[in-house]
């Protein structure tokens, strides 16, 4: 019996080699190509899109990865318009549901949570403090502010309780950064990291406003944005090509050179020689590459202080959006519940109804210890507590588990441990020789979002073009 043949080794030349074909890498490559630079994109997966991924599961179209656009995400909105794509608003008609710490379910209208006047006042006071800090420190260089170290050496959990004795208010405010964004327990990251998260969205008030932060989606799915960019680049994008080695040289101010070798993937061995490299992958994957010579000590230390969060994105598809019959929006919150957030995620033009819910950090740890059947039952029971027993019997049920993805290892993005942002923040975007960095994890505006990935991709490309300009 004949053995399968390994594809022949291929060698390509480029001005810039981009590692990663997610939104950041593809925007970098697109920007470079428009400026006449030769570019090759090496992607480990057999698809483009990175942490955006749309697929049909059991006959239902699901956005497995990132999907929403907020009104301030102008980089993404501009690209969507340029590519000729349409968007649609998330369904939000009707009343919302809140489940209190004691399990009491309340249906409510308006922006204010149905909590006691004292708790509501504390939520508003904490929001005002965070809004002021976000405006004062900003998203571009929060680590440079005189308050940075003080905020970075206390956990967000303990900082909140230093501001307020109202536990329900602290948990509600914590939900929108810990569970909703960083997907880590609030005791695992600093108050400075929380301020960056708020500043990157324009304010903490914006993070509290689900109609702002989760405003609209792309018809056909967010991954289609990456697919359209990749189509423009043609055979410059190589799939199934995980980069194993990056050889580099070049002093500060020099053009430098790099050789990227992708080995062992479905594309076979691919070697790209270039003058610059852009690493457009999450920081948790930097160590999957061997660097020759090794990266400087500062980078080794920095990368060890960044880690991914953990969240299960749950999709439940029903024969109809039954919650609308009860004049409910499908929007649900409960900081102490297993599923802390639920939203109507029905697709454009679909007669069926889709709910999406999120199980974050330690709650995700707990349900991953269960069997798949037990986990499904527990998650659906949590959703049913918000929306009724019809939620128990979806036609399609699917869990997005990005923590199991070899080329991601968590969600939604990486953040620093206590003290890490003030210690290393200034160095995380600084090129090393001919190597540039680009991903949503390093963004200022749009941090952790597709918009931030696009901004970082463009920024890294412009850095590379400037570095290459003496040779033009």
**Number of domain units:** 3
Count of individual beta strands? 24
Top-tier CATH class of the largest domain: Alpha Beta
Averaging pLDDT over every residue, what do you get?
95
- How would you name the CATH homologous superfamily of the largest domain? FAD/NAD(P)-binding domain
Q: Please give the CATH architecture of the largest domain.
A: 3-Layer(bba) Sandwich
Radius of gyration: 23 Å
| Largest sheet: spatial strand order | 9-8-19-20-21-18-22
- Strand content is 15-25%
CATH fold title of the largest domain = FAD/NAD(P)-binding domain
Q: What shape does the CA trace take?
A: globular
Q: Into which percent range does the helicity of residues fall?
A: 25-40%
Uncertain parts: 1-8
Largest sheet: 7 strands, mixed
From the helix content, strand content and strand pairing, which structural class follows?
alpha/beta
Report the end-to-end length measured between terminal Cα atoms.
Answer: 53 Å
Total helices: the number is 16
Characterize the structure shown.
It is a single chain. Mean pLDDT is 95; it is low at 1-8. The chain has 16 helices and 24 strands. The protein has a seven-stranded mixed sheet. The protein has a five-stranded mixed sheet with strand order 1-14-13-12-16, with no helix packed on it. 34% of the residues lie in helices and 22% in strands. It is an alpha/beta fold and 472 residues long. Its cofactor is FAD. Belongs to the flavin monoamine oxidase family. Residues 24-464 form the Amine oxidase domain.
């Amino acid at each position: 019996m004949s053995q399968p043949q390994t594809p022949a080794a291929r060698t390509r030349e480029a001005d810039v080699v981009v590692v990663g074909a997610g939104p950041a890498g593809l925007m970098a490559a697109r920007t470079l190509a428009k400026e006449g630079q030769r570019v090759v994109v090496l992607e480990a997966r057999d698809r483009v899109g990175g942490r955006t991924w749309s697929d049909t599961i059991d006959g239902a179209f699901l956005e497995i990865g990132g999907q929403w656009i907020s009104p301030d995400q102008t980089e993404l909105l501009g690209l969507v318009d340029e590519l000729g794509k349409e968007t649609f608003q998330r369904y939000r008609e009707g009343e919302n549901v809140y489940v209190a710490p004691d399990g009491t379910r309340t249906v409510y209208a308006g922006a204010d949570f149905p909590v006691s006047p004292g708790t509501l006042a504390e939520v508003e006071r904490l929001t005002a403090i965070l809004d002021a800090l976000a405006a004062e420190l900003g998203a571009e260089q929060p680590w440079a502010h005189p308050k940075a170290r003080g905020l970075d050496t206390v956990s967000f959990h303990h900082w909140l309780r230093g501001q307020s004795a109202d536990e329900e208010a602290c948990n509600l405010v914590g939900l929108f950064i810990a569970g909703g964004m960083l997907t880590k327990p609030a005791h695992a990251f600093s108050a400075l990291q929380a301020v960056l998260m708020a500043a990157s969205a324009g304010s903490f008030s914006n993070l509290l406003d689900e109609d702002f932060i989760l405003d609209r989606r792309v018809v056909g799915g967010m991954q289609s944005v990456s697919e359209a960019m990749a189509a423009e680049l043609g055979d410059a994008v190589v799939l199934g090509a995980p980069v194993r080695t990056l050889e580099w040289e070049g002093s500060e101010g020099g053009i430098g050179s790099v050789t990227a070798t992708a080995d062992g993937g479905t594309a076979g061995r691919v070697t790209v020689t270039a003058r610059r490299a852009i690493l457009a992958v999450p920081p948790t994957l930097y160590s999957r590459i061997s660097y020759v010579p090794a990266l400087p000590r500062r980078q080794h230390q920095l990368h060890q202080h960044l880690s991914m969060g953990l969240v299960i994105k749950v999709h439940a598809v029903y024969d109809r959006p039954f919650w609308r019959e009860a004049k409910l929006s499908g929007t649900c919150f409960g900081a102490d519940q297993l599923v802390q957030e639920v939203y109507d995620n029905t697709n454009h033009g679909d007669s069926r109804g889709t709910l999406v819910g999120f199980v974050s950090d330690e709650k995700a740890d707990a349900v991953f210890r269960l069997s798949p059947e037990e986990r499904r039952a527990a998650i659906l029971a949590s959703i049913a507590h918000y929306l009724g027993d019809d939620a128990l019997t979806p036609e399609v049920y699917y869990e997005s588990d990005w923590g199991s993805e070899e080329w991601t290892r968590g969600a939604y993005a990486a953040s620093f441990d206590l003290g890490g942002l003030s210690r290393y923040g200034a160095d995380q975007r600084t090129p090393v020789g001919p190597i540039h960095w680009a991903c949503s994890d390093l963004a200022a505006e749009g941090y952790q979002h597709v918009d931030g990935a696009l901004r970082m991709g463009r920024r890294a490309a412009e850095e590379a073009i400037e570095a290459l300009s003496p040779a033009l």
